[in-house]
Amino acid sequence: GTGMGLPAAVRDRVAAVHRSSTLSERLRLYDSWAARYEQDVAVLEYRAPHLAAASLAFAFPAPRAGARLLDVACGTGLVAWELHRRGFRCLHGVDGSAGMLERARSTGLYQELRLCVLGREPLPAPAEHYDAVTVVGALGEGQVPSTVLPELLRVTKPGGFLCLTTRSNPSNLRYKAELEAALGQLERSRAWQKLLAQEVEYWERATSEEESARGTGYISGVVYIYQKCPVPHLEEG
Hints:
Largest sheet: 7 strands, mixed
Radius of gyration: 17 Å
CATH superfamily: Vaccinia Virus protein VP39
CATH architecture: 3-Layer(aba) Sandwich
Number of strands: 7
CATH class: Alpha Beta
CATH topology: Rossmann fold
Number of helices: 7
Helix content: 25-40%
Distance between the termini: 65 Å
């Protein structure tokens, strides 16, 4: 049976990535998934790129065209499409998968794309370089560790924005708790301030009954928006 009404092949590809035990194994799976990735996530009704870009655009002060953005774990460029639609034009991307980066390059949406395995190596960017940093879909069990938050902050300008997402499905709850502890610790140490933590019920279609929220056939997720301190004061006009 195709449980949850999803094609078995799509379910298997998603399951393989989430099951993979090592990072290098996972990156190999992403390389081979790149060609089918966008079709698969469309079937999954994956809404994170849209939700994250909409939230960031809402928080971000105009003008957007000249703002420099780093799309971390950019994949095939789904987040870039959504940001571009909302007027962001200066987009840089990093990903751990060469196959994904090749797809991202073909969109023509990025000014710069670099291979970088986050959690293993620093971001290929100087300190305080970006007006905003996004990590959509990669903060999860067995993917990017929550210990990367200071590195994301390092490359963000003071007053700049960070847009992060994670899933709230059962197999990611331990990771989510760790992530939220790390987010809170950085907030208490005044490294950034929280602008938004939006729980979204229909994040994407579940690939198994166990992961589904209350039998809806979907899993839920969260969008977080933070602003790096010190936040610039508005000039008295």
